[in-house]
Amino acid sequence: MIYLDNAATTFPKPHEVYEEILNCMKNYGANPGRAGHKLALEAGRTIYETRENICKLFNIDNPMNIVFTNNATDSLNLAIKGLVNEGDHIVTTSMEHNSVIRPIKTLEKIGVSNTIVKCNESGELDVNDIKKAIKENTKLIVTTHASNVCGTLIDIESVGKIAREMNIVYLVDASQTAGVYNIDVKNMNIDMLALPGHKGLLGPQGTGILYVGEKINLNQLKEGGTGSKSEELTQPNIVPDKYESGTPNTPGIAGLNAGIQFILKEGIDNIRKHEEELTQYFLNELSLIPIIKVYGTKDAKKQAAVISINIGSQDSSEVSFILDSVFDIATRSGLHCGPLAHKTMNTLEQGTVRFSIGYFNTKEDIDKAVAALKSIVDEIK
Amino acid sequence: MIYLDNAATTFPKPHEVYEEILNCMKNYGANPGRAGHKLALEAGRTIYETRENICKLFNIDNPMNIVFTNNATDSLNLAIKGLVNEGDHIVTTSMEHNSVIRPIKTLEKIGVSNTIVKCNESGELDVNDIKKAIKENTKLIVTTHASNVCGTLIDIESVGKIAREMNIVYLVDASQTAGVYNIDVKNMNIDMLALPGHKGLLGPQGTGILYVGEKINLNQLKEGGTGSKSEELTQPNIVPDKYESGTPNTPGIAGLNAGIQFILKEGIDNIRKHEEELTQYFLNELSLIPIIKVYGTKDAKKQAAVISINIGSQDSSEVSFILDSVFDIATRSGLHCGPLAHKTMNTLEQGTVRFSIGYFNTKEDIDKAVAALKSIVDEIK
């Protein structure tokens, strides 16, 4: 099996991730932050250490500003719904995932309006359009860092600058870039950063992160036991407890910690270099195959390692099915939970076949994917 | 280490649980319900099979009525906040965990009122008091099945009967009983059932379940990618997708499946019998030690395997600390995220030392705990 669905979940994980999950479950699988016994303390220490390692990766000062969630969707819902109130306005882009668009659309019902800035057909954002979309009541700008459909990168540093100048909160969805691209919340003026644990950060599914900047105070979306201020009937107003009710996914977070340590050891620049090289190689090869249409910028410097294509007018699901069943190559087809992005790219009807490259893919994997595509194209012609 | 903190998280897990988590991560660690390739399909199948096994345990007909969440707190928030609207009234008890009380208190701000029925000092509920608390606008009754502080069981069958007669939705928090006690949603008239995966169900942390009865339509608390109806900008109105946005905790759910299969194989009655025997033995031994005050019913037939005590007026945290550091026995002390329960039991100042027994505890573990307590009592006298 050649796995090219890393934009959904990276696979495989570094062996250290598997080992740490098992180590946690077998040796300190207790409840962190509640009891004071040895196993509970060890669980608590691991979670704190993970917060610290996340801080290293994104230039965050205070580990207590790291909130653990279930996945990036959970993080985005908390960030968006926790911040805005009736009468507020949100600016976002047409390349967002449904995890951004659907919460924003839901908020319309309680009187939160929005402007969805249109990107060009390659998914590129003109940051001036963000500036133009800002109104007096704009409370939040939210953009992805890279499209999950065609990989196109957004210049989050420039958007962050605008947000800071206009004193508007900036939320970045780094689902497709965390662990691979340099993201510096301070230099890039990012107030909130939503991250999945199970993609570029190489942790297991069931982990997500929201960085909530020091000055931001969100309404929590759920309440419950926090292990702190147990005597109070209301949610404690201390971070991260306020946003983290109930037992956390300790083994998952321990695995995520191992994933992040792997990234810190390998070096994020080396990881990106490898993915960029494979992406550019794949893009070059694809350009030589007739009938294949490649979406996005077709430039590995301008996009994450996510490549969407179609073969003529072939149904994208059928192509994905053939890649899997005949060639043992795992891709994703269809709409990728981003209908507005597909509208932007004019692929709402056909969807796309998405290849997404991870750190553990090799040039040989790409060669096999190219050969498979050539074979399918030959069959059609 | 003698682990007696199973009410927080059961530890250890059956070895099948560790193995299945690893098997999932190493062999089919892809994203379920999104792509159509082999690994994604296998992940999807495992999640569906887990829904089916949960149905077996609780006499649920439709696997699509099983919603996966992060933990029981997540489940309770969705159940409570998803159901009620301004003007509604909720009936609950004074023995609830903060994961029930805090959401209910938060709802007061949007005009949802509540009545908290007081239990007696042993944590026992007079079900007639539930009946008396019902008003014309009561939309929801929520009770725990067993107190997480002193273990006292609530007669959920009788409460369910009242709820059905009065046509009110009944939500049960089975955090302390699922996997150990027989819970039959049909015969007990339970409309919603909130469950942690990591306690009696023997799965890993990071997993929770909400059963949402066929007739119940909740407002979802978050929106995002569901892998279904990707073309729509609003959350799809199909279950369980409506309530399950974003990538699920597939390895966690796979581990939970292994835990539930273990329970089905061992037999829930055998599990309960073992825990009841150890609980009664412990209660008997405790009654022989001077100065020790045991809370709750002191009858293993009337309580789950959760035993709260204090030694004279000793600080509960100090006793727990000594148990851990001198005797290598893991317990939890303090308020256990249940301030109203402690008020009911008159332990709000002192807290309690909580011993919670799991299926893997032995008589020898209890003997060692008893010996340790005797030794601490001797030291004090």
From TrEMBL, chains A, B:
Its cofactor is pyridoxal 5'-phosphate. Coiled coil: none annotated. It catalyses: (sulfur carrier)-H + L-cysteine = (sulfur carrier)-SH + L-alanine. Its EC number is 2.8.1.7. It comes from the Bacteria. Transmembrane segments: none annotated. GO terms for molecular function: transaminase activity. Residues 2-368 form the Aminotransferase class V domain. Keywords: Aminotransferase, Pyridoxal phosphate, Transferase. It is an enzyme of class 2 (transferase). NCBIfam families: am_tr_V_EF2568. Belongs to the class-V pyridoxal-phosphate-dependent aminotransferase family. Csd subfamily. This is cysteine desulfurase. It comes from Tepidibacter hydrothermalis. The lineage of its organism: Bacteria, Bacillati, Bacillota, Clostridia, Peptostreptococcales.
